Amino acid sequence: MLSYEHAYHIGNPADVLKHWVLSLCLQHLNRKPREWTYFDTHAGEGLYHLDDERTQRLGEWQQGVGKLSPELRQQPEFAAYIRALEAVTDTWPPQTLPGSPVIAAGESRAQDSLVLCERHPRALGALRRQLGRHPRVSIHERDGYEGILSQLPPASGRGLVLIDPSYELASDYERIPQWLNKAVQRWRQMMVAVWYPCLHHEPHLAMVRAIQGLCSPEGKPLSWLKVECHLKAPPERGLLGAGMMVVNPPWGLLEQLQAGAHRLAQDLALEVTLHHSEND
Ligand code: SAM
User: Fold this and answer.
1) What share of the chain in percent tops pLDDT 70?
2) In b/e form, how buried is each residue of 200-221, taking b as 16+ CB within 10 angstroms?
3) Quick one: pLDDT at residue 69?
4) pLDDT tens for residues 126-137?
5) 89 alpha carbon to ligand 1 midpoint, in Å?
6) Domain boundaries, the chain
7) Neighbouring-strand partners of residue 227
8) Number of alpha carbons in the 13 Å side-chain half-sphere of residue 81
9) Strand, helix or coil at 248?
10) Residue 235 in this model has a pLDDT that exceeds 90
11) What's the rounded mean pLDDT across residues 249-277?
């Protein structure tokens, strides 16, 4: 039984990190005219309204999107992310926030397509209302790991996979590296972004190490980039921070993250750390 609903957490600092990195990856794909495909294993609702009672209950966005300064909003490294936010709201702070599929749909061009998986009935209904009639979006009510693996590689050979589970099931930490090992056999060049929470008992560490050790079908280590945000005033329980790992990161992404990290850290009271593979 799925109980997690992203509407409770939309726009929090962990979400800002994820959607910022996602927007940059999509922006990189748009640098070439050739089409790309975006795959979202855990798509969520697509669009979130801040007056939703679930979102109001915790108000987490106020510590995230709600704290983005005018300086950050002017910085070039955040342009794609801010464009995604402004595409769905006329006001600041926003009244509506985009989830990952809406961000990808917004960045997509006439030649690009999206493949989305979601299993929660309420999230699926919202996602279908939001993007179900979009001609280049296919939505699947199925397990995201199986559903997306069966679609790889895309015909164009270009694209991005976002893996963003709720980690309600501890098995996600093992399933992701296993999934990546299979996926890379099918699609050597795939760019993949994996979001993960940082918790007191650090269940993400083994997963991160496994991703750092990924190899191509020929046995060559894959390049990766890791960005983590830790709250400067962490709570006694719950989320201490979050990370994003990008496998096969686009050239220049690291420098963009380095250039934006200081401002993000200041605005959201975070420590931001960046690491990358040696083969970059
Ligand atoms: N990626 C979204 C975004 O950034 O806007 C948020 C996704 S949320 C963290 C995780 C979503 O995965 C939830 O909507 C949940 O219902 C869904 N989910 C959980 N298990 C799933 C599975 N096995 N396959 C597909 N979706 C699943």
Assistant:
1) 99
2) eeebbeebbebbbebeeeeeee
3) 98
4) 999 999 999 999
5) 23
6) 6-276
7) 244, 274
8) 24
9) coil
10) no
11) 97
Cα-based distances in Å from 97 to 43, 55, 136: 14, 11, 21
Q: pLDDT value at position 2?
A: 77
Q: How far is the CA of 165 from the centre of ligand 1 (A)?
A: 5
Mean pLDDT of 186-194: 96
Q: Is the CB of 117 under 6 A from ligand 1?
A: yes
CATH of 6-276, one of 3.40.50.150, 3.90.226.10, 1.20.85.10, 3.40.140.10: 3.40.50.150
Closest residue by Cα to residue 123 from 87, 94, 164: 164
Place of tokens 């910022």: 20
Residue 162 CA, closest ligand 1 atom number: 1
pTM above 0.90, yes or no: yes
